[in-house]
Design goal:
It is built from eleven helices and 15 strands. It is α+β, with helices and mostly antiparallel strands and 336 residues long. Helix 2 packs parallel to helix 6 (159-177) and helix 6 packs antiparallel against helix 7. The protein is globular and about 65 Å long. It binds adenosine-5'-diphosphate and magnesium ion.
């Protein structure tokens, strides 16, 4: 049973960036407005995430890391109205199977916080009082300690540096979609990146990518029954040499606030950009783009992959077409 557990866990949790993503989403689901992420040795020695969210109720702490335990959905019906990032109840248990995990938490009802140490199966093995304020801190030590081949693969190659870059890109996406969130990333006690609380998405883009990246952006807004598209796209006819990069990662696409990697959407975005800026195609430059597509959650299936970055849409008209029309009409009206 332990082997089966280890095998399934290391599919959900296959790198530092997965751990950070799962823990960050748990913090956001708990309503946190301030999240501090600290890594040591690229996260392979220590990943610590501290939030000021709701905390975990004492009644839930015994089962929080039990495989498939989730406090977020009660029935199959709830799946159709998902408003949380998590719902599978898989992450915490899976992380326990591949690392040493401790969770410190305090709700508004608790007089004092508690630090729980979990074992490989996600069971609480010890607990002690903690002076920590309201919220939750999850500490993950020695990631992949029981998967030496995988650990060596990252630690002994430059792969661990790539992981850090991926963590930064991931945090940028959440920083952009959550303007009200305060976020910091620390590596080996050095603050690598931080973003303060801001008031809207444009400010969030500026705080995350710098003023140059947003100077040339125009807001996009398109609404039709069951779909709303909001975001920013480069202004036609501008020199966007400052704003574009050779890195496609500066295109931030969200569906219902969830960062996604959706090929058909990226393709539409790329085509529109190239139509506006033929020169950038030759230079292989990519624009800064942010688009948040809001659809009824019952029409999206985010369950295709454990990390939920691939989605399936039930819409008869694919959003790539709607997006293409909305970008076109938005620009025509703004240029006119
Ligand atoms: P899921 O997010 O799919 O529910 P997880 O394994 O990620 O599953 O988390 C299990 C449960 O632990 C959550 O449903 C939630 O009740 C609790 N939990 C985990 N992290 C936090 C946190 N940072 N703040 C509050 N509750 C948390
Ligand atoms: Mg979760």
């Amino acid at each position: 049973a332990d082997t089966v557990r280890l095998l399934s866990s290391c599919q959900v949790i296959n790198s530092v960036v997965n751990v950070v993503k799962e823990l960050l989403e748990n913090s956001l689901d708990a309503g946190a407005l301030s999240i501090d992420i600290k890594l040591e040795n690229y996260g392979f020695d220590r990943i610590e995430i501290r939030d000021n969210g709701s905390g975990i109720k004492a009644a839930d702490t015994a089962v929080m890391a039990v495989q498939h335990y989730t406090s977020k959905i009660c029935s199959h019906d709830d799946l159709e109205h998902l408003v949380t990032y998590g719902f599978r109840g898989e992450a915490l248990g899976s992380i326990c199977a591949v690392a040493e995990v401790a969770v410190t938490t305090k709700t508004s009802e608790d007089d004092v916080g508690t630090r729980y140490t979990l074992d490989l199966t996600g069971s609480v093995v010890s607990q002690k009082p903690s002076h920590l304020g309201q919220g939750t801190t999850v500490c993950v030590l020695k990631l992949f300690k029981n998967l030496p081949v995988r650990r060596q693969y990252y630690v002994n190659t430059k792969k661990c540096k790539e992981e850090l870059k991926k963590v930064q890109d991931l945090l940028m996406a959440y920083a952009i979609i959550k303007p009200e969130l305060r976020l910091t990333l620390t590596h080996n006690k050095v603050v690598l990146w931080q973003k303060a609380k801001v008031s809207d998405h444009r400010m969030a883009l500026m705080a995350t990518l710098g003023p140059n990246a947003v100077a040339h952006l125009l807001p996009v807004h398109h609404q039709q029954p069951e779909i709303v598209i909001d975001g920013f796209f480069p202004r036609p006819g501008m020199d966007c040499s400052l704003a574009s990069s050779s890195n496609p990662d500066k295109t931030f696409i969200f569906v219902n606030d969830r960062p996604v990697h959706q090929k058909d959407i990226l393709k539409v975005v790329r085509q529109h950009f190239l139509a506006q800026y033929p020169a950038d195609s030759a230079l292989n430059r990519y624009p800064t783009v942010m688009l948040n597509i809001t659809v009824p959650s019952s029409t999206v299936d985010v369950n295709l992959t454990p990390d939920k970055t691939q989605i399936l849409l039930q819409n008869k008209v694919p959003f790539s077409i709607i997006l293409s029309i909305s970008l076109q009409t938005d620009f025509d009206s703004q240029v006119a």
